[in-house]
Amino acid sequence: xxxxxxxxxxxxxxxxxxxxxxxxxxxxxxxxxxxxxxxxxxxxxxxxxxxxxxxxxxxxxxxxxxxxxxxxxxxxxxxxxxxxxxxxxxxxxxxxxxxxxxxxxxxxxxxxxxxxxxxxxxxxxxxxxxxxxxxxxxxxxxxx
Length: 144
Fold this sequence. Notes:
By secondary structure, the chain is α+β, with helices and mostly antiparallel strands. It has helices at 13-16, 64-77, 99-113, 119-123, 128-143; strands spanning 2-3, 10-11, 25-31, 34-39, 42-48. The chain contains five helices and five strands.
């Protein structure tokens, strides 16, 4: 209730507002992912439950010097010629590494960077960039 300052009479605030029928109902459901909502028999709102297609890419690129060190270690462990081109996108499999070679590469990385790589993390490494990103992540956590 609000009081009118001039006449001193009480007025209900709700009586000042227009009256609406707030009942909403599903008018039609066209599938499990969309519906139309109506009020007073008129279509007011339609919506879709389909998620928008969004492509999210998260990149945690390691420093170039870390990638270079990893490339040198991979070349050394795989006994690749000095003119072999290795980049961050190079996969160990494409470079001819088998599972034992990959374990030796990880051991070389641990020794070079003074870190310890858990077995689960080591198994997720497939590229030089993966290895460099993991190394920087471990070093950052170690320094925190």
